[in-house]
């Protein structure tokens, strides 16, 4: 068994109790944001389920445990997109359905981990539904998602849901300070949704300076001094993360208008609030969310052009 990350232990103990009592549901959905290390939890769970000696942990030496160790257990199947960012295909799900109909190779449990579920297209999701509707007794399905709201309700309603909640900013900071990465500003955890591993990567890859650079360019824009084309180009080079950061800046700015203040706020929040009134921050944050979602769903779009368009509108609203 792995030494679990501290924020995973509550849910793991709950799972263990459920396995111990032999009432772990046949179909489960675990909801966890990216950068929470849910893979570690799934790994512990898989080894425990497959072990022939213990119900809720792996012994490490039985035949099953050894097969798990060498990644060759015939009753353990992980379904994930063949390439990152692509979808799992209906053929992958059909194959998984066929395997679920067969009997266990080692006369124990069979486990299917589907990872991440939102990467299934609609026909794959429909194919999976059939199997979830009539699960055979020794068959477990563990579905992992980072975005539960984008799943078909027909899928979620057939699964027991487990939520992996992010720790408080302060606990993330404490954990990070033990990872010898030097000083970590409190807002680093905040703009990464308090997901500890995402924050760790953020700090390690020196995205702190990248963030500060984008923040100062954005504030210059609010002062009608920025180079909007340059900013759009930079935001478009990693739109998924940089637009998210900006969203936190706008959202913190709104809170400043309400007189709120926490050490985890983005450093430029107060200045943004000074330059832009609440109503505009609110409406532009909504527009930004729409843009983020649009870019996420349609990978073929011209991100730079759409971001430029949003920045012009943002600037226009401030000027008007
Ligand atoms: Zn074992």
Task: Describe this entry's structure for a reader.
The structure is a single chain. This protein is an alpha/beta fold. It folds into two domains: 6-163, P-loop containing nucleotide triphosphate hydrolases (Rossmann fold, 3-Layer(aba) Sandwich), CATH 3.40.50.300; 206-317, Zinc Finger, Delta Prime, domain 3 (Up-down Bundle). 54% of the residues lie in helices and 8% in strands. The protein is built from 15 helices and five strands. The protein has helices at 9-20, 38-50, 63-69, 90-101, 122-133, 153-156, 169-177, 186-190, 196-204, 207-222, 228-237, 239-257, 269-275, 278-297, 303-319, and strands spanning 27-31, 76-79, 110-114, 139-145, 160-163. Strands 2-3-4-1-5 form a five-stranded parallel beta sheet, with helices on both faces. Helix 4 links the parallel strand 2 and strand 3 (110-114). Helix 1 packs parallel to helix 2 (38-50), helix 4 (90-101) runs parallel beside helix 5 and helix 10 runs antiparallel to helix 11 (228-237). The longest helix has 20 residues, at 278-297. The chain starts with 8 loop residues before the first helix and ends with a helix. The mean pLDDT is 90. The structure holds zinc ion. Residues 51-53, 58-59, 62, 64-65 line the site of zinc ion. Residues 206-314 form the DNA polymerase III delta subunit C-terminal domain. Its EC number is 2.7.7.7. InterPro entries: DNA_pol3_clamp-load_cplx_C (IPR008921), DNA_pol_HolB (IPR004622), DNA_pol_III_delta_C (IPR015199), DNA_Rep/Repair_Clamp_Loader (IPR050238), P-loop_NTPase (IPR027417).
């Amino acid at each position: 068994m792995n030494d679990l990350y501290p924020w995973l232990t509550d849910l793991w103990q709950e799972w263990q109790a459920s396995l111990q009592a032999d009432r772990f549901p046949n179909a489960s959905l675990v909801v966890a944001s990216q950068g929470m290390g849910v893979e570690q939890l799934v790994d512990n769970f898989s080894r425990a389920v497959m072990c022939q000696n213990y119900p809720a942990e792996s012994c490490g030496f039985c035949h099953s445990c050894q097969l798990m160790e060498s990644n060759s257990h015939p009753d353990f199947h992980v379904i994930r997109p063949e390439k990152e960012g692509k979808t799992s295909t209906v053929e992958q799900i059909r194959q998984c359905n066929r395997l679920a109909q067969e009997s266990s190779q080692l006369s124990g449990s069979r486990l299917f981990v589907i990872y991440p579920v939102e990467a299934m297209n609609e026909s794959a999701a429909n194919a999976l539904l059939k199997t979830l509707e009539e699960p055979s007794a020794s068959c477990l399905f563990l579905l992992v998602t980072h975005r539960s709201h984008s799943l078909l309700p027909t899928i979620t309603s057939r699964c027991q849901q487990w939520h992996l909640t992010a720790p408080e900013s302060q606990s993330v900071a404490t954990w990070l300070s033990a990872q010898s990465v030097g000083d970590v500003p409190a807002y680093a955890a905040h703009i990464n949704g308090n997901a500890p591993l995402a924050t760790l990567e953020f700090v390690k890859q020196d995205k702190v300076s990248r963030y500060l650079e984008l923040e100062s360019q954005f504030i210059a824009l609010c002062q009608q001094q920025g180079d909007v084309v340059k900013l759009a180009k930079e935001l478009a080079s990693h739109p998924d993360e940089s637009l998210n950061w900006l969203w936190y800046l706008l959202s913190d700015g709104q809170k400043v208008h309400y007189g709120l203040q926490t050490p985890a706020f983005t450093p430029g929040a107060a200045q943004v609030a000074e330059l832009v009134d609440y109503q505009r921050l609110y409406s532009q944050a909504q527009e930004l969310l729409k843009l983020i979602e649009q870019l996420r769903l349609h990978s073929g779009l011209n991100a730079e052009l759409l971001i430029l368009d949003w920045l012009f509108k943002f600037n226009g609203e401030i000027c008007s």
